[in-house]
Amino acid sequence: MFHIVINGCQNVHLQGVKIVAAGNSPNTDGIHVQLSRNVEILSTPIKTGDDCISIGPGTENLWIEQVTCGPGHGISIGSLAKDLKEEGVQNVTVKNTIFSNTQNGLRIKSWARPSSGYVQGVRFIGSVMTNVQNPIVIDQNYCPRNENCPGQVSGIKIKDIVYEDIRGTSSTPITIKFDCSSKNPCTGIRLQNVNLTYLNKTAQSFCSNVVG
Fold this sequence. Notes:
GO terms for molecular function: polygalacturonase activity. Its main location: secreted. Keywords: Cell wall, Cell wall biogenesis/degradation, Glycosidase, Hydrolase, Secreted. By secondary structure, this protein is an all-beta fold. The chain is built from no helices and 18 strands. The protein has strands at residues 2-7, 10-15, 19-20, 29-34, 37-47, 53-55, 60-69, 75-80, 89-100, 104-110, 118-132, 134-139, 157-170, 174-179, 186-198, 201-202, 204-208, 210-211. Strands 2, 3, 5, 7, 9, 11, 13, 15, 16 and 18 form a 10-stranded mixed beta sheet that branches. An 8-stranded parallel beta sheet has the order 1-4-6-8-10-12-14-17, with no helix packed on it. It is globular.
């Protein structure tokens, strides 16, 4: 299902790895990280049919830099809230990334069900988007293909997320979508120097249940 899995590891350095899969191949995540700390992923081009990099519960101190993604579903934290008792994701930096013709750019996703998990201390810095469907997205009602959706409220707490120096083009009018939990609204969301356009026009944004 995944090309590379980093599970239950510490002090991992991954650099210069090339990953290629067909853009229409499902469940072919490039690199998946979970239950690991002090991981670096550097200078890695990824073409795939799912997330270029997916970040699961229990990830701490992750540094991603100079990664190119496309085709694919972007760089995603999640999906989270698969389990009631779930470890958090914290201290993640995603820097100097390029997304080309991807479904998503920078994404945080969780199922709409109770969970003890959280996401905090994430920095997205210096991304270039070209024809990306959802450049910036937090989706706490994640349910692909709308099949077997939990239909509850996400328990994942999301706070202290920074988007800085993000620019490029979107393939849809809504370039920024924050769909957070009504029970645990997102807090500490900060955007600085974000310039995303759709058909050379001013783009739209969607924001629900975001506080501060």
